[in-house]
Amino acid sequence: MLANQDHLLDSDYIPPDLVKLTVKKISSTPIEMRAAASEALSTMFSAAKEDGITLYAHSGYRSYKTQNTMYYNRLKKNNGKDDGVVAYPGSSDHQTGLGIDVINKAGIGKKFTSAFAKTKEGQWVAEHCWEYGFVIRYQKEKEDITKIIYEPWHLRYVGIQVAEYMRDMNYCLEEFTDEWQRTVYEYEH
Ligand SMILES: [Zn+2]
To answer: What's this model's pTM, rounded to 2 decimal places?
Structure first.
C-alpha cells in the first residue's frame, strides 16, 4: 500500500487488523499497527536487545482525522503556509498502519533529526531492519522521489521478501510500487 502526495488514502480508510504494540514505547500511550507489522516489530526489538540496542516505538498508526488536525494546526502556526513538515491528510505513511517511528532513549522528548542515523541505535536499524521486513521509508538519496526529507527513524513494514528485494535494488517504496504495478499489468495483458 502506497500513501504519498500523489496517492492519498481515503479519509475513511482504517486498516482492518490494528493491534496495540507490545514493544517498549516512549510513553504509556498505546500505539497501534497492523498485526503482522506489530509482530515483526517485536521480533526486531528483541533481536536489537540481544545486540545491546534498546529501541523505543514513537508513533505508529495515525488516523486521517488526526492527520487533518495536525496539518491544519501546522498551517496555522506557519501563517497558512505548507512547509512540508506535516504530511497532507491522506498522504501519511502512518495511516497505512504499517509505518512506525523508532528512536533511542536520548531522542525521547526531542525533535527528530537525521542525527539519529549516526547513533548506534540508528545504525543498527539501518543495517538490520530489512531482516525483519522493514525498510527505511524516506531515504536521503530518494528525497526527489518521495518528496519527504530523510527520516532515518521512520520504518515501513513491507514483509521480509520485499524488504530484501528493495534493499538489493536500492528502491524506495515509490520505485518498488511502480515496478510491481508494471509487472502485474504486463502479466495481465
Ligand atoms: Zn513517521
So the answer is: 0.94
Å from CA of 165 to ligand 1 middle: 22
Is residue 54 a contact partner of residue 104, using CB atoms and an 8 Å limit?
yes
Q: What are phi and psi of 112, to 5 degrees?
A: -70, 135
Q: Cα(7) to centroid of ligand 1, in Å? A: 17
Domain hosting residue 46, numbered range? 18-188
Structurally, the chain folds into a number of domains equal to 1
Residue 13 is assigned to a structural domain of this protein: no
The grid coordinates listed for 177 are 510500487
| Per-residue pLDDT of the chain in tens (189 residues, 90 and over written 9) | 999 999 999 999 999 999 999 999 999 999 999 999 999 999 999 999 999 999 999 999 999 999 999 999 999 999 999 887 788 999 999 999 999 999 999 999 999 999 999 999 999 999 999 999 999 999 999 999 999 999 999 999 999 999 999 999 999 999 999 999 999 999 998
**Cα-to-centroid distance, 122 and ligand 1 (Å):** 14
